[in-house]
Amino acid sequence: MNLSKKTLHRPSIVYQAATLPWRRKGGVEIMLITSLGTGRWVLPKGTLSPGETSRAAAKREALEEAGIGGVLDTRPLGSYTYEKQVSSGATQVYSVAVYPMKVETQRDHWPEQGLRRMKWFRTAEAAVAVNEDDLREIILSFEPSAKSVAGSKRTA
Hints:
By secondary structure, this protein is of the alpha+beta class. The protein has a single domain (13-145), classed as Nucleoside Triphosphate Pyrophosphohydrolase, CATH 3.90.79.10. Helices cover 19% and strands 38% of the residues. The chain contains three helices and nine strands, in the order E-E-E-E-H-E-E-E-E-H-H-E. The chain has helices spanning 54-66, 123-129, 133-141; strands spanning 13-24, 28-34, 41-42, 45-47, 68-72, 78-85, 91-106, 118-122, 153-154. Strands 1, 2, 3, 4, 5, 6, 7, 8 and 9 form a nine-stranded mixed sheet that branches. It is globular and about 45 Å long. 28% of the residues are buried. Mean pLDDT is 87; it is low at 3-7 and 147-156.
Protein backbone atom coordinates (compact mmCIF):
# COMPACT_ATOMS: atom_id res chain seq x y z
CA MET A 1 0.00 0.00 0.00
CA ASN A 2 1.38 3.40 -1.01
CA LEU A 3 0.67 6.18 1.48
CA SER A 4 1.47 9.74 0.54
CA LYS A 5 2.40 12.21 3.22
CA LYS A 6 0.86 15.59 3.29
CA THR A 7 3.25 18.36 4.14
CA LEU A 8 1.78 21.09 6.26
CA HIS A 9 3.30 24.45 5.53
CA ARG A 10 3.42 26.74 8.51
CA PRO A 11 4.23 30.34 7.78
CA SER A 12 7.27 31.72 9.52
CA ILE A 13 6.66 34.28 12.24
CA VAL A 14 7.78 37.85 11.72
CA TYR A 15 8.65 39.59 14.99
CA GLN A 16 7.55 43.15 15.50
CA ALA A 17 7.54 45.67 18.33
CA ALA A 18 4.96 48.30 19.18
CA THR A 19 4.70 51.26 21.48
CA LEU A 20 1.60 51.83 23.58
CA PRO A 21 1.86 55.64 23.83
CA TRP A 22 0.09 57.10 26.85
CA ARG A 23 -0.39 60.33 28.76
CA ARG A 24 -2.47 61.68 31.61
CA LYS A 25 -4.90 64.37 30.55
CA GLY A 26 -7.95 64.29 32.79
CA GLY A 27 -7.33 60.53 32.97
CA VAL A 28 -5.22 58.10 30.99
CA GLU A 29 -5.23 58.49 27.21
CA ILE A 30 -3.67 56.20 24.61
CA MET A 31 -2.50 57.36 21.19
CA LEU A 32 -3.46 55.30 18.16
CA ILE A 33 -2.41 55.92 14.58
CA THR A 34 -3.90 54.72 11.32
CA SER A 35 -2.29 51.93 9.32
CA LEU A 36 -0.96 52.83 5.90
CA GLY A 37 -2.87 50.14 4.01
CA THR A 38 -6.34 50.02 5.52
CA GLY A 39 -6.56 53.14 7.67
CA ARG A 40 -7.59 51.12 10.73
CA TRP A 41 -6.49 52.22 14.21
CA VAL A 42 -3.23 50.60 15.40
CA LEU A 43 -0.28 51.21 17.69
CA PRO A 44 2.97 52.50 16.21
CA LYS A 45 4.73 49.23 15.32
CA GLY A 46 7.09 47.60 12.91
CA THR A 47 9.47 44.77 12.17
CA LEU A 48 12.75 44.40 14.01
CA SER A 49 15.87 45.18 12.00
CA PRO A 50 18.66 42.57 12.07
CA GLY A 51 20.40 42.69 15.46
CA GLU A 52 17.85 45.16 16.88
CA THR A 53 16.14 44.50 20.21
CA SER A 54 12.36 44.67 20.37
CA ARG A 55 12.58 47.61 22.78
CA ALA A 56 14.84 49.54 20.38
CA ALA A 57 12.46 48.76 17.50
CA ALA A 58 9.48 50.03 19.54
CA LYS A 59 11.35 53.27 20.25
CA ARG A 60 12.28 53.67 16.55
CA GLU A 61 8.75 52.97 15.31
CA ALA A 62 7.24 55.50 17.74
CA LEU A 63 9.50 58.18 16.33
CA GLU A 64 9.12 57.18 12.65
CA GLU A 65 5.34 56.70 12.66
CA ALA A 66 4.15 59.23 15.26
CA GLY A 67 7.11 61.54 15.97
CA ILE A 68 6.92 60.80 19.69
CA GLY A 69 9.43 60.19 22.44
CA GLY A 70 9.28 59.75 26.18
CA VAL A 71 9.74 57.16 28.89
CA LEU A 72 9.68 53.65 27.42
CA ASP A 73 9.21 50.73 29.81
CA THR A 74 12.10 48.27 29.95
CA ARG A 75 9.81 45.24 29.61
CA PRO A 76 6.86 44.62 27.30
CA LEU A 77 3.36 44.83 28.74
CA GLY A 78 2.42 41.79 26.65
CA SER A 79 2.33 40.53 23.09
CA TYR A 80 -0.25 39.66 20.47
CA THR A 81 -0.29 37.95 17.10
CA TYR A 82 -2.10 38.78 13.90
CA GLU A 83 -2.19 37.51 10.34
CA LYS A 84 -1.94 39.52 7.17
CA GLN A 85 -2.16 38.54 3.53
CA VAL A 86 1.05 39.66 1.80
CA SER A 87 1.52 40.61 -1.86
CA SER A 88 2.30 36.99 -2.88
CA GLY A 89 -1.13 35.96 -1.61
CA ALA A 90 0.36 34.00 1.30
CA THR A 91 -0.69 34.57 4.88
CA GLN A 92 2.02 35.95 7.13
CA VAL A 93 1.91 35.62 10.93
CA TYR A 94 3.23 38.52 13.02
CA SER A 95 4.07 38.46 16.73
CA VAL A 96 4.15 41.90 18.34
CA ALA A 97 5.72 42.84 21.70
CA VAL A 98 4.03 45.92 23.19
CA TYR A 99 6.03 48.44 25.25
CA PRO A 100 4.23 51.24 27.12
CA MET A 101 5.68 54.72 26.60
CA LYS A 102 4.80 57.76 28.66
CA VAL A 103 4.81 60.37 25.91
CA GLU A 104 6.79 63.49 26.75
CA THR A 105 7.66 64.96 23.36
CA GLN A 106 6.30 65.20 19.83
CA ARG A 107 8.60 66.39 17.10
CA ASP A 108 7.63 69.04 14.60
CA HIS A 109 8.69 66.76 11.73
CA TRP A 110 9.08 62.96 11.44
CA PRO A 111 9.43 60.41 8.61
CA GLU A 112 5.77 59.34 8.26
CA GLN A 113 4.18 62.67 9.09
CA GLY A 114 1.20 63.30 6.84
CA LEU A 115 0.83 59.62 5.92
CA ARG A 116 -1.17 58.64 9.00
CA ARG A 117 -3.77 60.14 11.27
CA MET A 118 -3.24 60.05 15.01
CA LYS A 119 -5.69 60.44 17.83
CA TRP A 120 -5.68 60.25 21.63
CA PHE A 121 -8.35 57.92 23.05
CA ARG A 122 -9.51 57.09 26.54
CA THR A 123 -8.41 53.54 27.36
CA ALA A 124 -11.81 51.90 26.79
CA GLU A 125 -12.26 53.81 23.50
CA ALA A 126 -8.81 52.73 22.29
CA ALA A 127 -9.67 49.11 23.06
CA VAL A 128 -12.85 49.34 20.98
CA ALA A 129 -11.02 51.06 18.10
CA VAL A 130 -8.47 48.27 17.47
CA ASN A 131 -9.30 45.07 15.56
CA GLU A 132 -7.15 42.48 17.33
CA ASP A 133 -8.74 40.85 20.39
CA ASP A 134 -5.40 40.20 22.11
CA LEU A 135 -4.34 43.83 21.59
CA ARG A 136 -7.68 44.95 22.98
CA GLU A 137 -6.98 42.92 26.14
CA ILE A 138 -3.47 44.42 26.45
CA ILE A 139 -4.89 47.94 26.20
CA LEU A 140 -7.59 47.21 28.78
CA SER A 141 -5.04 45.69 31.16
CA PHE A 142 -2.78 48.77 31.05
CA GLU A 143 -2.70 50.79 34.24
CA PRO A 144 0.18 53.25 34.49
CA SER A 145 1.74 53.65 37.88
CA ALA A 146 5.07 54.69 39.31
CA LYS A 147 6.06 51.03 38.93
CA SER A 148 5.19 50.94 35.20
CA VAL A 149 8.03 53.32 34.40
CA ALA A 150 10.47 52.21 37.11
CA GLY A 151 13.80 51.45 35.56
CA SER A 152 12.71 52.93 32.25
CA LYS A 153 14.94 55.19 30.26
CA ARG A 154 13.96 58.37 28.52
CA THR A 155 13.89 58.11 24.72
CA ALA A 156 14.20 60.93 22.25
